[in-house]
Amino acid sequence: MDKVKLFSIPDIKFYNPPEFREYLVENYESSQVENIHAEKSDDLYRKNLSSVEIVSQVRDSHDYEVVDLDHYFEFFGGLSKAVETIRGEKPEMLITDTTKEVVKTEDVGDVIARGVRTRLLNPKWIDEMLKHDVHGAQQIADRLENVLGLAATTNAVDNWIWSSIARRFVFDEEMRRRLIENNRFAAAEVMERLFEAEERGYWDATEDELDELRSAYLEAEGDIEDAI
Predict the structure, then answer these.
(1) Residue 215: pLDDT band by 50, 70, 90 thresholds?
(2) Residue 7 pLDDT > 60, yes or no?
(3) For range 95-108, the mean pLDDT
(4) CA 115 to the chain's CA centroid
């Protein structure tokens, strides 16, 4: 029996779109029911995917936003992309919040935007992260990786999000210096993720944005070389 595999951004960035989409289909085609564990059921799985119109995620805790964990793009996003691959049409993607008395269901794009605002664009959250040497900047880079995964699997990360992240962490010279001082490798990773978002077509960056990003990245590379 084949075991269910997880994927990560380092894995998927080497796939071109057709290979990536097929990979996501194959990644979840194993059955998990009573007395059957991780048994491949390709034909049945593809038939079921062809009839899916909505993919939904239920949140029962405020401890984590969708940008905090890779599981949101691995499972929720990955399944949605698998449905899109088989049906030829993107399913409606909804996330339901059950943490309050009134249950609220939102489009995935709205939930991603809120997660970015409350984490990566939130000065108080950033300040608290950067109180932790090394680890703080890495947490920021990890969440940006999750945003990239959500962009790949949901196509619901708006262009303004990438530009806002670039302005917050790269174009702001003081903030960029704080990141580098906290963890120069994570700071470089933040910039690499932005380059990757632009290369994949998730971010329609302006030439001025790209020029500023390249300049900042060269500076960060120099800091890394000086430290080695």
Answers:
(1) very high
(2) no
(3) 91
(4) 11
Residue 166: both structure tokens together:
């670039």
* Cβ-contact 169, 217 below 8 angstroms: no
What does residue 60 show for φ and ψ, rounded to 5 degrees? Answer: -120, 15
Tell me the C-alpha distance between 226 and 91, whole Å: 49
CA dihedral 70, 71, 72, 75 (to 10 degrees): 130
- pLDDT band of residue 114 (cuts 50, 70, 90) is very high
- pLDDT at position 146: 95
Would you say 178 and 133 are in contact if contact means Cβ atoms under 8 Å apart?
Answer: no
Amino acid letter, 64? Y
Look up the pTM and report it.
0.85
Asked if residues 138 and 186 have their Cβ atoms less than 8 Å apart, the reply is: yes
Q: Token pair for residue 173? A: 């010279």
Which residues lie below 8 Å from residue 80, measured CB to CB, with a gap of 6+?
A: 55, 90, 91, 93, 153, 154
